[in-house]
Known about the structure:
The structure holds three protein chains of three kinds.
Chain A: E1 8-19, E2 22-33, E3 37-41, H1 48-55, E4 63-68, E5 71-72, H2 78-83, E6 86-88, H3 101-107, H4 117-122, H5 126-144, H6 160-173, E7 178-182, H7 190-207, E8 210-214, H8 218-224, E9 227-232, E10 235-240, H9 242-247, H10 249-256
Parallel strand pairs in A: 3-8, 3-9, 6-7, 7-8
Antiparallel strand pairs in A: 1-2, 1-4, 4-5, 9-10
Chain B: H1 13-16, H2 23-43, H3 46-72, H4 80-97, H5 103-122, H6 130-150, E1 163-164, E2 169-170, E3 173-174, H7 178-200, H8 203-213, H9 215-221, H10 225-252, E4 254-255, H11 262-275, H12 280-305, H13 310-332, H14 336-350
Antiparallel strand pairs in B: 1-4, 2-3
Chain C: H1 2-32, H2 39-61, H3 68-94, H4 102-124, H5 141-147, H6 153-175, H7 177-187, H8 189-194, H9 199-225, H10 234-245, H11 250-270, H12 272-275, H13 283-294
Amino acid sequence: MVRQSGDVIVDLRNISLRFGGVKALTDISFDVREHEIRSIIGPNGAGKSSMLNVINGVYHPQEGQIHFRGQLRRRMEPHHAAEQGIARTFQNIALFKGMTVLDNIMTGRALKMRCNFLQHAFYWGAAQREESAHRLKVEEIIEFLEIQSIRKTPVGRLPYGLQKRVELARALAAEPHILLLDEPMAGMNVEEKQDMCRFILDVNDHYGTTIVLIEHDMGVVMDISDRVVVLDYGRKIGDGLPDEVKGNPEVIAAYLGTAH
Amino acid sequence: MLYREAGQFRTSYAEDGRIFPIRQDRVGFALLVLVFGVAVPLLANEYWLKAILTPVLIFSLAAIGLNILTGYAGQLSLGSAAFMAVGAFAAYNFILRVDGMPFLLALALAGLAAALVGVLFGLPSLRIKGFYLAVATLAAQFFIVWVLVKFPWFSNHSSSGVVTAQEVSILGYRFASPEAKYVLTFAVVAVLALAAKNLVRSATGRAWMAVRDMDVAAQVIGFRLMRTKLLAFAVSSFYCGVAGALYAYTYIGTVEPEGFNLDLSFKILFMIIIGGVGSIMGAFLGAAFIVLLPILLDNLVPALFGDALGAGFASNLQLIIFGGLIIFFLIVEPHGLARLWQIAKEKLRLWPFPH
Amino acid sequence: MQFFIEVLIGGLLSGVMYALVALGFVLIYKASGVFNFAQGAMVFFAALSFVGFQEVLPARFGMEAGSAAVFWLSFLLAFATMVVLGIATERIVLRPLVNQPPITLFMATIGLTYVVEGLAQMTWGANVRGLELGIMDEPIAWLMDDYGIGVSKFDLFAAGVAASLVALLALLFQYTKVGRALRAVADDHQAALSIGIPLQTIWRVVWAVAGFVALVAGMIWGARNGVQFALTFTALKALPVLILGGFTSVPGAIVGGLIIGASEKLAEVYVGPLVGGGIEGWFPYMLALAFLLVRPEGLFGERHIDRV
């Protein structure tokens, strides 16, 4: 599988993150290239989710630099990341429980909507046209992810697998340049995993979206990733093509344990 | 059998996004507006208009305000009555101090004044959440009432702090009779309720609900917490402010700051709990329920227990029933009367063949 | 300077009384995550029951009015009443609402407030009653004579009672089996359940203890200001103490109470006259709020990290 990878889009240099006295990430550097599928793997507690949280501004590392499209990024909040085209899904589903599937996905369009709240209060003319236009876009995504039948269902009532899919839909609705996926296949059966893989590859192919993926299923990771970075106890222990990583003795040790 | 949607197809997203996508609902709602907007003022007697229907409408408006903040944006407030007070006294002073101030403009300005104060007291919501915020809104409740009492300028130096609302007139027509006041209230409330419904079904409402349901995820999607929360505080207080002004001008006529106390704030909170948190129609149902219940009890208690028990007994019984109902609703139907209404409609859609 | 010290001490001592009420909130919040708005109503109910029994026992059962026997029997009966109330609350209100969002439980306790207020007055009537503890509300003579500082005996007594109550609770929490279970439940309901701690029993115990705290607070407040409906407002005094000290911290409640009490009295004396007085209604809230803006986790709270 050879896909065209472009320039470096996110460049993380010497990132360290602490919570009080606990070190979550220590001196981690790696980069993400445009259009690639970049996976982050590692045992539980290795700091994978923290890494994503650093990339989209939920956590602020104490040390290190992040370059985004070649520019040094100052301290930023999650909504800045969203404005720059970074969308993500969460390890423990973070859907808006009180809203329907459709409304959840529509929130993904928020940054692209221009009407203000006074226009919304009248719901006439521009506001209504805008709503319909974005609805059209959202319906495309609904069709793509094959969730037409649950459009108006409150997300709280959906089974786990479908919720994961809705979360992906919400992230896609923002038409992101970079998509951060935190264990999109956790807890899924084989069929659901296959579907999800297909969606991820399609998004990558169709829209050229750069994808940063955290996943535990090694089969999946090795199949669909262009490059893989391996974390263990907050440190980087491997980085490279899937086959290189597979053969890396440190990585094998981290997963299987070593004789002391 | 009449309540069927078979044969009604939605052919555009605009049609799908309507408030009442089902034709029967639209007809029913139009009838409701006609009944309460035209028939009621023509037919109802003065007592009903003055003591029941007008206050129900006004409290509905305040409840919509609180519902926007608490039900949609998820920020619990215990200070709604204080924002009503701001509205009432702002309207009074605008009309008193600006010559030829049109009433409707004064009403809007009263709402804006309340919105401004609301934003001020909403600022803490950016750093604190949940119960801490709820307690913080009590600061608004006590501080605002204190300011209105302590600075006599607000009540035009009236010795007791009580102000009498000026006569309401729009374009030369004087709204003096209960019927006229009711119609005016109805019109204002209807327009604002529609605007509220539009807000909550649009991107603004989705932003509020997103922040309510999971604020971290909302930020990651790109919502700005500060803007979203403060807008909720502003709009909510605007509604409470207008409700307060109407309370003074079309309902009781004379108001004092202490009338807008914590008890009133709780009453409005009860309205949205019983009516339905996160529902515009629930605000109306809840307000009607809370206004009608004491009247009903006043009539029922003597009939059931005789007069021997005295007024104290009746008012204590009222407290117990009020509190008990709140607990009952929270346990049995946390989404309130609005949800019961929805269930009834679903049943009706299938009736008489429920399978 | 003497005046300043007098005001300060007076404030600190009244802060102790706020802390006493706040303690009841903290207990219940720690063990069940319920922000019990009805604590004020419970204070009222407890005090009213106590004076009610004090009237009823001599009148109906021929006991000698004002005797120690009547006092202690009334105390026990009032405590029993609070225990019954606590158990009933657990059974009727809390159990059906398990796993509901905390805000729902909070609103339920607002409903409970109304029920308890109504019940209290329906049972015992709404008249204001005096409550005699036998401690005079007068300055301590030698302090007054030698240093010219007026400190009320009664306030000092109240502070002593509060301090012993806190010590007692600390012992209960730290060293008894029930206390350990309580702390486990406070940490994590599910985990506590899974190792066999009977959640409902624990909740009943906590509500009973909170009822006891309410009774003590009610007796002291009642002796000071008379047993009347206004006792329910003690809850409003305790809330700023809670946001300052944190909902889960017993020392926080004490320190918060002292800070609120002292600064409230000082503000009333030194700032009040500048703005027309009557600021004690909102000043504690504003103070607590200003503090929260600087330190959102409260005095003794831990910084919360959102995990996603």
